[in-house]
Design goal:
The complex is a heterodimer of chains A (111) and B (116). Chain A has no helices and eleven strands. By secondary structure, chain A is mainly beta. In chain A, the strands form two sheets. In chain A, strands 2, 4, 5, 6, 9, 10 and 11 form a seven-stranded mixed sheet that branches. The radius of gyration of chain A is 13 Å and the shape is globular. Chain B is 3% helix and 54% strand. In chain B, a hairpin with a 6-residue loop joins β4 and β5. Chain B is built from one helix and eleven strands. In chain B, the strands form two sheets. In chain B, strands 2, 4, 5, 9, 10 and 11 form a six-stranded mixed sheet that branches. In chain B, strands 1-3-8-7-6 form a five-stranded antiparallel sheet, with no helix packed on it. Classes of the chains: A mainly beta (111), B mainly beta (116). Chains A and B meet through β4, β5, β9 and β10 of A and β5 and α1 of B.
Chain lengths: 111, 116
Amino acid sequence: EAQVTQNPRYLITVTGKKLTVTCSQNMNHEYMSWYRQDPGLGLRQIYYSMNVEVTDKGDVPEGYKVSRKEKRNFPLILESPSPNQTSLYFCASSSLGETQYFGPGTRLLVL
Amino acid sequence: DQQVKQNSPSLSVQEGRISILNCDYTNSMFDYFLWYKKYPAEGPTFLISISSIKDKNEDGRFTVFLNKSAKHLSLHIVPSQPGDSAVYFCAASGGDSGAGSYQLTFGKGTKLSVIP
């Protein structure tokens, strides 16, 4: 089954404690992206990757890091989480000319 | 500056009637438009799309209309069903053959409630 998976689905952490949210897709898509969804703000892009070792900033990259060492994986790293990073995070992937497939989301609470 | 705008945060419609969700955009480089549907606790799922070379695309109960001169698109759902209750996001892409072809700019979403 074609899918985008994210782990964990729910996470509660404290300010400053480094965390990683994993994202994996099994569709051999070259493009992957991270979004955050906040009430009244819709979906905002954090980082994206056009292919292995190629990443770029989206609209709200501050406080986040990403890496793309393998085509199927695109982890989102929060080196020092802060309460304003409490949000619902989505990973997505696509091939050129295709629609983006989204993962199920990761709900993060930073205390 | 918001490039894709959904000015109605919410919409309530009786079951069986038509739901019309609206979306406006400002970037003339956008040439592909999509609607995504999102249920609580799930990721957005693709619903329907339209290329800028068309003014209408239909898929079952869902029709998207594009008015390029007005930079406006709308999603019509006929007839509306309770299972259609969800948040609907309008998205747009376009530009060069590089990142612009992949990148989606989303609106803030419209929450549709279909009342039985």
